[in-house]
Amino acid sequence: MKMLKSTLAVMTAAAALGLSSFAHAGATLDAVQKKGFVQCGVSDGLPGFSVPDAKGTIVGIDADVCRAVAAAVFGDATKVKFSQLNAKERFTALQSGEVDVLSRNTTWTSSRDSGMGLVFAGVTYYDGIGFLVNKKLGVSSAKELDGATICIQAGTTTELNVSDYFRANGLKYTPITFDTSDESAKSLESGRCDVLTSDKSQLYAQRSKLAAPTDYVVLPETISKEPLGPVVRKGDEEWFSIVKWTLFAMLNAEEMGVTSKNVEAEAKGTKNPDVARMLGADGEYGKDLKLPKDWVVQIVKQVGNYGEVFEKNLGKATPLQIDRGLNALWNNGGIQYAPPVR
Question: What is the distance between the alpha carbons of residues 275 and 271, in angstroms, rounded to a whole number?
């Protein structure tokens, strides 16, 4: 009896403090299924990650992660709506429930993962902060930027990391902050600042939109670790698991050689036990996630494996021309890695 009273007291206290995860379990998936689409928070316009194309469709690797979640949940990658958010708006939109998942070139940090009621579901893109300059500035290293005026997007980890870097190297600079990445890039182009700083992927993206992209160069230094990935609210393990394993499915599919072109054939005739489990041909993969047996098939068929999505949005055939680098698979010189399907 004493033990029962003690347990009830702890549960009551936890509920009063809003700490009980049971009250939120399944809430997001239920809401998503009821409304019939995934509401996805993306950037306010970053080529390669999330930007409207000529027809107004949001395209990019971050947008495709959300399409993959929709394919997993509904069997239909088109059942997703996008909210374009700037850096200041993004976390509030997720915390308030305005969006179901934030897939917006957002850096996974300890404070964001522990103090904001949010949790990161994985790493879509391993990045790091760099510097973009006009070749006329005549510098070839970040160590030569003493006294520079630097354009920075407000509300990002870049502000703090650049401050740390300059202080550690005994350099001075003048920051000019902007709410959007486009404003920052335009200020570099107009000469209002000497340098544009951001994640290197974003620098390549912004350079591609300048009137004379070849006049600008990304300096060689990478001054920070910026693991970018999808974010969900804490307290709903079911939804967290779905988003997490959606990203892992794209990575595992690439590792196993399963592509959008061969996935249906592999699902019907593979002799590889790992592939059979992943594609639902053997066992009940997806049952614990409350997803249908063919959920991975739908992701890869409609959106692609990780490598396909990377090359389509960021690779050598795109204006960004970004090497896989750290984002190659672990068995091909990179560090992208997904837990096994078992």
Answer: 8
**Residue 33 neighbours by CB under 8 Å, 6+ apart:** 73
Domains and their CATH numbers in the chain: 18-126+228-332 (3.40.190.10), 129-224 (3.40.190.10)
**Do 146 and 172 form a contact (C-beta atoms < 8 A)?**
yes
**What span, in angstroms and rounded, lies between the C-alpha atoms of 338 and 301?**
19
How many angstroms separate the CA atoms of 307 and 67, rounded? Answer: 15
E strand or H helix at 283, and its extent?
Answer: none
Nearest to 63 by CA among 99, 116, 110: 99
pTM assigned to the model: 0.86
Is the pLDDT at 40 greater than 90? The verdict is yes
116 falls in which pLDDT band (50, 70, 90)? very high
Confidence at 181, pLDDT banded by 50, 70, 90: confident
Measured CA to CA in angstroms, residue 304 lies from 186, 231, 311 at distances of 34, 21, 10
User: What would the mean pLDDT of 264-272 be, rounded to a whole number?
Assistant: 96
How many Å apart are CA 54 and CA 211, to the nearest integer? 18
Cα separation, 301 vs 321, whole angstroms: 25
**How far is 114 from 98, CA to CA, in rounded Å?**
21
Encoded tokens for 61 = 């690797």
Joined together, the tokens standing for residue 192 give 């209002």
Among 311, 108, 141, which residue's Cα sits nearest to residue 222?
A: 141
